[in-house]
Amino acid sequence: MNIRTGVSPLLRGTPSLSPLRRTTLGPLNRPSFSSSFSLSPPTVTLPHRYISTTKLTKMAAQDTPSGKQQKPDNDDNVITNWVKPGDKSGEFKRQQSTFRSFISSSPGSEFPPETNRYHLYVSYACPWANRTLIARKLKGLEDIVSFSVVHWHMGAQGWRFVTADEAANDDSVKGEGVVPHDEGFTHLRELYFSVNPDYEGRFTVPVLWDKKTKQIVNNESSEILRMLNTEFNNLVDEPYKSLDLYPEDLRKQIDETHEWQYDLINNGVYKSGFATTQEAYERNVRALFSALDRAEAHLGQNQGPYWFGDRLTEVDIRLFVTIIRFDPVYVQHFKCNIRDIRSGYPAIHKWMRNLYWNIPAFKETTNFAHIKNHYTRSHTNINPLSITPVGPVPDILGLGEEVAAVGLRG
Ligand SMILES: N[C@@H](CCC(=O)N[C@@H](CS)C(=O)NCC(=O)O)C(=O)O
């Protein structure tokens, strides 16, 4: 695919048997652990379907574990306690991912790159998982790494797989890769317990799964992104092979950009939305918007169309997955409403829409129904009635469109 135009090549790669080179991974995430509004047109077509409350109640009833190796929950061990009960700081503290092995082409590697050996378990709602789906498509790995998508609803037992009936009949969940688990697991936690019955971490997506040895290779999206970028290169043809999302000469700048964008933007929306004190919320939301101002200034000064001019990198992927969710969800659900993107950040808005509308890997992996339903109906501590706001309409504006109030500006 020509990344600049988003045009896919006709030829797919024939697996090459030549040995792959070893890649050294640089430092990744270090988990430390003017208001405006948009006007809706008078008559609108709902962009996607929301489900009824009766159905939601039924779903919640279904959301019971299969009974395999479940851990008892007590008040301190409830999956939706984003801030630990009793933590007076009111701060959300993201946990470190647990599984950190690498697919590697080096001789003797435990997880060598192979066609149809690895699988990604993802949620379309989740920005971290979305990173890996974008990279999978950009790197031409669609016939090499398979994927499946969990139901958008995360209940008391965490992410669950869809049922065959939902996959066939429920319009709110339908989408590429939304299928029941092939061995009949009902919840993602069963996958974690299948490799470690004593696992005590969170049951997060994405999960990079080895179908051959039935192990979790890695559940940290920033590292999965790096593996997809380099380790399958000898199994794909040009131009996928030479697309480098983490090029040597930009690594320092990419790492520096990740450092502030991860903490203040990608994780910043969660720290704002999950805060349980006014003080923690305000501190995080102000820091988030200062970081967005910084991103706006950077994109406004550059030729574009990408963060680093004409070179598409990890930075575009990692920032995109947060920005595309911003107006539809974070503005209202996480109270990130000092401004919105479409009317408050023209350069970010232009950059985001270029990626979405011109490069299929971004649009095809964005599912607004999953995104909106997940946040508004799973975080019942934030939205107890599980009512999903209709707007903004549309979820994303067309390339040349502006919100009415902005369009009228001088
Ligand atoms: N650091 C992880 C974070 C992944 C993550 O937090 N995923 C969320 C969904 S957006 C999740 O699965 N949460 C379930 C839970 O925490 O119980 C990564 O980047 O892969």
Could you describe the 3D structure shown?
The structure is a single chain. This protein has 410 residues and is mainly α. Among the domains are: 118-235, Glutaredoxin; 248-407, Glutathione S-transferase Yfyf (Class Pi), Chain A, domain 2, CATH 1.20.1050. 36% of the residues lie in helices and 5% in strands. The chain has helices at 53-62, 127-138, 164-169, 188-195, 221-230, 251-266, 268-273, 278-301, 314-323, 326-333, 341-344, 346-358, 360-363, 368-378, 404-407, and strands spanning 118-122, 146-149, 154-155, 158-159, 207-210, 215-218. The protein has a 4-stranded mixed beta sheet, with helices on both faces. The protein has a two-stranded antiparallel sheet with strand order 3-4. The longest helix has 24 residues, at 278-301. The protein starts with 52 loop residues before the first helix and ends with a helix. The model is unreliable at 1-75 (pLDDT under 50). Bound molecules: glutathione.
Annotation keywords:
410 residues, mainly alpha, Glutaredoxin, Glutathione S-transferase Yfyf (Class Pi), Chain A, domain 2, 4-stranded mixed sheet, 6 strands, globular, disordered N terminus, binds glutathione
How many E-type strands?
6
| Largest beta sheet: strand ordering | 2-1-5-6
Radius of gyration over C-alpha positions, nearest whole angstrom = 21 Å
The geometry reads as: globular
Bound molecules: glutathione
Largest sheet: 4 strands, mixed
CATH architecture of the domain at 248-407, please? Up-down Bundle
Mean of the pLDDT scores?
Answer: 84
CATH top level label of the domain at 248-407: Mainly Alpha
What structural class do the secondary elements suggest? mainly alpha
What is the CA-CA span between the terminal residues? 39 Å
- Here the CATH topology of the domain at 248-407 equals Glutathione S-transferase Yfyf (Class Pi), Chain A, domain 2
- Seen as an oligomer or otherwise, the chain set is single chain
Q: Strand-and-helix sequence, N→C? A: HEHEEEHHEEHHHHHHHHHHH
Count of individual helical segments: 15
Task: Please bin the fraction of helical residues.
Answer: 25-40%
Biased composition (Low complexity): 31-40
GO molecular function, one term: glutathione dehydrogenase (ascorbate) activity
Subcellular location: Cytoplasm
Catalytic activity: RX + glutathione = an S-substituted glutathione + a halide anion + H(+); L-dehydroascorbate + 2 glutathione = glutathione disulfide + L-ascorbate
